[in-house]
Every structure is written in C-alpha cells, then in structure tokens.
Input
Amino acid sequence: MDNIKLYLTDKNFDIKTCDSLGKQGLPESRNEREQWLHEHAPQLAKLQELFCADKRFGLLIILQGMDTSGKDGTIRHVFHDANPLGLKVHSFKSPTEDELAHDYLWRIHQAVPRRGEIAIFNRSHYEDVLITHVRGWIDDKELQLRLRQINDFERMLTENNILIIKMFLHISKDEQRYRLQKRLDNTHKHWKFNLSDLTDRKLWDSFQEQYQTVIRATANPNAPWYIVPADSKSSRNVIVMKILISHLQQLNLQYPKVDDSNWPKTVD
Output
C-alpha cells in the first residue's frame, strides 16, 4: 500500500509543520475517497480473517487526538466490514477507584489483544502523559518516568508478538471549533458535547506542545506513530485504512495447516 510513509513520524516530529488537511496521494474528491473505502473494505476484512486464523500476532491500534478529531468515526468507517468476533474496542475514560489503586498501566495491560485478535484503543495510556501533564497533575520528573515506562511497556509487548500502530488524528483548531459548534446546534448531538471540551480547547497550545513532546519521546520502529490529517473525515479514513492494510500485508500471514487425512469426503 503506497504512500503511508508520508504519515510516519519520528523523534524529530514538529507539530507546527503538519498539515491537518493533507491529501497528498489520495483520491481528489470526497466521492472518490468514499468509493476507495468501499472497494478496499473487503480487502481489510479478508486480512483480518487471515490474521485471526494465523494466530501468531496480536494487533494493538492506538487512536489519539484532540476532542472531535474523529476517533469514533474512524473506527466506524474503517472497520465497517470487520468481523466483530476478532475485534475489540476499548474506550478509556477517567480511571475508577479500583484502577487508581493500581499502577496506571494496569488497566491498559488487561485490554491488550490476544494473538489473533485486533484491539483498538480509543484514547489510551497516552492520556496519562498528556492531559495529566497539561493540567498539572504530574510534574516534569513524573512525565519523564512515565514516558520511559511506556517505551518499556510497548517494547515488551512487541517482543511478545503484539504489534502496535499508533495514530495521532491531527485536526486544526478551526475545524474543532466547527465540529463543536455543530454539536451545540444539533439537539441530537448534545449527548456528545461536554463542557470539559471547552476547557481543553482553551489549553489548545499546551496540548499541541505536549503531543509533540510525547510523540517524539515514544516514536519507535517497533511501535510507530503516524500523523493522520483529520480535517477531512474521508481523507482520514482512507489514510488509516491504507496504513492498516500495509502493515497486515507485510506479516506474510498464513492459514494454519490442518491434518485432514481422516476427514470424510462428504457430510451425510
């Protein structure tokens, strides 16, 4: 799958140079992009089936982004044809009392996929080095400690055949304002609106700076970060699907060999 390296980032990541509306290498019109998704969804579904049958790997997909960046929409559109039996979605909210009694990675590790399974994290352990630092709940020393621990944690997972793909859904401040306003204007969208979204919006620059810090510190070959332009929903979905198809194709997945020597030729 071509062009996914356009979105791969490294420890030199500069969020100010990232285009939130980037469409390089994509179909030009929205209709063409939606048609591309429709045509390639069966390919992703087939790769998921093969991934499940192969059972050598688990796949952890991490979606991060500012409020309204489209984490739910990405899951809904990209995995439209996926088999739900091999797919799990975890949305991490504020930790419970029981979770707070453990280390911050405890609840994360419990949601890590089994081999043959794909897990999608809608937000993740990265909240514990993003909002916690922006809001002043942890200091710089604790931040550096957690970043090291996250790198160690992800390395341990990948060394045990749990593949990790991390995606930052990058939207502009203007696009976020537009999407938040739509939630306010449509009574059927009020359930998605939260006053804390406006609080975080006032801290936009701090969050952008923190995303840059965190992505630079945790961009590793074994657990890569992709910066996905997300102002255009259809472009975002195409890019995410391209990334996933490319990674799955590189695994040389195989159906398991089955001893059918004693099987009957027909079923009565």
Q: What stands out?
A: The first strand starts at residue 58 and ends at 65. The CA atoms of residues 59 and 120 lie 8 Å apart. DSSP finds ten helices and five strands in the chain. The radius of gyration is 20 Å.
